[in-house]
Design a protein that fits this description.
heterodimer; A: mainly alpha; Growth Hormone, Chain: A; 2 domains; two-stranded antiparallel ribbon; 4 strands; 70% helix; globular; B: mainly alpha; rod-shaped
Amino acid sequence: MPALSFLDRAHTVARPGYSRWLIPPAALAIHFSIGQAYATSVYKGQLQEHFDAGHTSVGLIFSIAIVVLGLSAALFGTWVDRVGPRKTMFTAACCWASGFVVAAGGVALGGTLGLWVVYLGYGVIGGIGLGLGYISPVSTLIKWFPDRPGLATGMAIMGFGGGAMIASPLSKKLMSVYGGDAGHQVTMLFLTLAAIYFCFMMFGVFLVRVPAPGWHPVHWDPAEHKPKKLQTTAHVSAGNAIRTPQFWLLWVVLMCNTTAGIGILENAGPMIQDFFREEGADGIWRSTLDADPVTVATMAGGFVALLSVGNMAGRFLWSTCSDFVGRKNIYMLYLGGGAVMFLILATAGSTSVALFVLLCMVIVSFYGAGFATVPSYLRDLFGTFQVGAIHGRLLTAWSTAGILGPLIINGVLDSQTPVQGPDPENPSGTVDVLTASDYALGLYIMVGVLAIGFVCNLLIKPVSERFHETGNVTDAADGARSVDAHS
Amino acid sequence: MSDQQTGSDQRLEIVLAWTVVGIPFAYGIYNSVKAALDLFTG
């Protein structure tokens, strides 16, 4: 279609002198938008009330979206590398916005059928937008920042963590403005978010450019650049990459790092409350944080917000550090350092609130950093050719961890015998609560999970030359052309 | 081929682009820090 020809890769090649510092805002516009996925808890209560559904039925909306994210990133990764970032971002914007519109229709419809329409809209259509949007700017950023890939991908993937920080207060505000019943509030919210995110993502679509063939930063000459031990100057296709042990070792590394982080994030709010309790003379376990249970709940909310900041900051800071210390070394810190943090948390986390908060913040910063650094690790091992497609395939590790992490931590907590604590909603009543010792087993399991990841990271060596592309291929578009020429 | 000097028109473009993404980011950070303060102030 001629009207959409501006989306073609050929029309996105940057003119000489185009500043590479215009690319991170384009990537952030996409990642800030799709990062909304982590803010679904804001309207979860309204959806439960409207559909008269339980936690599981409504929670499934988010789960479907994350699974489809991993699948679409894996399935469409090669297409993303071939057509370039602009067409991919545009497709992601269309899917993400239309997913909200369809989901709004489902909420307006109500009932069981309406909930299924929400699954289709937000979960499936929106999930495809998530997957495409997540990987769309990554390989472009790596090509624009060959000297600092960790910084570049850290900036973009930081946006995914930041998206929820923007969407949460915005959604609360919008729902209070719209008012009415729960269904009306969410319907209007979804339609508004569809419009806002479509416009914001289109800003990224128009801004993004790919560098011209052979471009490099003025102060950085690839001919003079001495690659680090694991950095290759060769290229490996996505098809070949998944046949290498390095891909699967890195898959396990990402899966272990993500599983451990989710273990904390999944239960952050209750965890800080449970870690600081002491038994009274009446056998009731009361918080040592504050005498008022409502204040304790507010403080727990503050802790969760602090972890969001740690998650987002870790994505940028640690990923940037990886440019200097190397990707393998930084993952040794994430996994080895993370295991030590979990161990201290299990043994001494309940001795001091400051220590507990610090340990959790560092753990969550390592969790976020694992996502942000992995595209640069892939680039080091497999080159820039099809790095987006390889990244897409690797994200199935995230989907796996999304199931495994909650399964481990919730399974361990469910197996513990609760004690009685004060009920925040009924001053004279009590509710089942847990204490710090109930978390110990789960935390020790996470130490083991991180140790497995640590060993896998140690085993990563440069990719064998037999997997390298033999032709003169510099990126996926060149690869596509060479395939066309041969066919 | 390499980067040329960034012209003043491009500098304006860079400032505008970063402002567009910086404003929502600042809004998110402000609200998160405000909520995080509850941990210390109760």
